[in-house]
Amino acid sequence: MNLHEQCLLRYLKNPDELSYTTEILKLNNKILEEKFVLKNILANLSMLNYTNNVE
């Protein structure tokens, strides 16, 4: 079960905790987005530096 499923299950069991589970999902999404951006930017910069140095 992933984090989104856990948050949905938690909400269904305790609907009054919606704001808490929403904040957890927002934080998780932000972390995933930052990892994705860093991974892709660093890969592109490394490739750019490699091609600039090779020429």
What keywords describe this structure?
55 residues; mainly alpha; 2 helices; rod-shaped
Helices and strands, with pairings:
Layout: H1 3-13, H2 18-54
Helix pairs in contact: 1-2
Q: Could you explain the architecture of this structure?
A:
The protein is mainly α and 55 residues long. Helix 1 packs antiparallel against helix 2. The longest helix is centred in the middle third of the chain and has 37 residues. The radius of gyration is 19 Å and the shape is rod-shaped. The model has no long low-confidence stretch (mean pLDDT 78).
Brief sketch in words of this structure:
The protein is an all-alpha fold and 55 residues long. The chain has helices at residues 3-13, 18-54.
How big a fraction of the residues is strand? under 5%
What is the SS-derived class?
mainly alpha
Helix content: over 70%
Write the element-wise H/E pattern from the N-terminal end onward.
HH
Q: Uncertain runs with pLDDT below 50, 5 residues or more?
A: none
Described by strand count, sense and barrel closure, the largest sheet is: none
Total helical elements: 2
The end-to-end distance, rounded to whole angstroms, is 49 Å
Instruction: Give the overall shape, derived from the CA principal axes.
Output: rod-shaped
| Count of extended strands | 0
The overall pLDDT average reads: 78
Radius of gyration: 19 Å
